[in-house]
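A student in our group prepared the protein record below, which I am reviewing. I have pasted the whole thing underneath without changing anything:
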Amino acid sequence: MKIFNNNKTSLSFRIFYYMILLVVVASILITAVTIIVFNNQSRDYHEERLERKESHLILNLNYFIEETMIDSLINIPQDKINEIADIHEIPFEIYSLQGQLLKTSIDFKLSKDDIILSPEILLFFKQQNNTRYVENNDQSKYSKSSYNVIYNNNKPIGIIHMPYYMDDSLSNNELRSFLKNLGLVQIGMVLIAFIFAYFLSNYITKSLTRISQKIKTTKLNKENAKIDIEKTPMEVSILIDSYNTMIDDLEESAVKLAKSERETAWREMAKQVAHEIKNPLTPMRLSIQSFQKNYNPEDKKNKIKLKDFSNSLIEQIDTMSSIATAFSDFANMPEQKKELLNVTEVVQIALDIFNKDYIEYSVEEKEIITLFDRTQLIRVITNLINNAIQAIPEDRNPIIKIDVSSTKKTVVINIEDNGNGISEKNRNKIFEPSFTTKSSGMGLGLSMIQSIMLAYNGSITFKTKENQGTIFKLVFPIKLK
């Protein structure tokens, strides 16, 4: 049926539907069988009644013929014919063996000489041992016609014809009355089946619904509760056991995966840190070697050389320090601390650090309250603005726009620049740790921002066009009043 072409049809509805369909089909079959049985009983009744009347009528005629010793059927008085027809409540006709009408209790407008039996009936009786012929009269007021041979001293002397009308009015009235009562019972059965199917389908699918809810909430990165449902069918119990076994395997796999991911992440981070630290160490080594080689205690320019040497070392040390700080910030993300704050004020504080004329700040509301860590939010904004400043080429007038707005459920912060944009090949890597397009830095900024936003049930997305600029969009929940 088309109703189930959709794979999303619920199991409870299917059980309910098929149970109701079963009751309706059973009711239709019972009604059909009842009508067929009534019709067969009515047909058998009329056939038995016709045979019974035939037998009594022929016995009566035979008795009269033997009693009066009449040698020809045409000599039977018409009064006797009418009397016998009235007694047995059935009209009849008597024909000769040649098919000519001799006597009848039925009034005809035609002459008796014009009424003869059909050749088919006469041929039937001429065949051996054929004594009774019955035909259905579809175009007559009589439903059936029965033809029998009349014997006298075991010799056939004529053919008797008995037209029979099957009066089914009583049987039809009984059938209608029975069907009416049956219909009321079936309506009651459908109503009971409707209620029973509703509760049964819910009972059957109740445990499956709970299992599906548990499966929906199953996560790889969190602790999952096992299912414990009592009094369930065997098939559902097997499904529950399989799910609980899967939870055990999932937890074990999650531990192994987390361990593997941590080891991989630290390995990659260690490689990156080692690489970044080696970069300033090489010029430091060269500077020291050059200073040792060219140092002359009597040279009057020693102070200037020593100052240049010191500045070079300090610069390289500062580079190493910034690398260590970036690594430390990423590796030791502070715990979530939710405090009630006004987003517009916090963003303004972050912008005050830069004090740039080309930074435009706009807000829809003066007060947008949310739960967030003040330090974390400032870090996110300053990091994105730093990225925006660094993305703008030197030969272009910088424009950076910060827009803060809110919806019924979220805070939205857009940070737009007119920089170089992000190339197509780098868009899928932009939030990966250690990825950067800059000549310096560890590429941890956007990855750290993404981690902070996810920790506060938020998100960071971007839209970009090469050589035109980029818009980063921050979305996180607002505190509902």
Notes: The first strand starts at residue 93 and ends at 95. The two ends are 50 Å apart (CA to CA). Residues 439-443 have pLDDT under 50 and may be disordered. The longest helix spans residues 234-294.
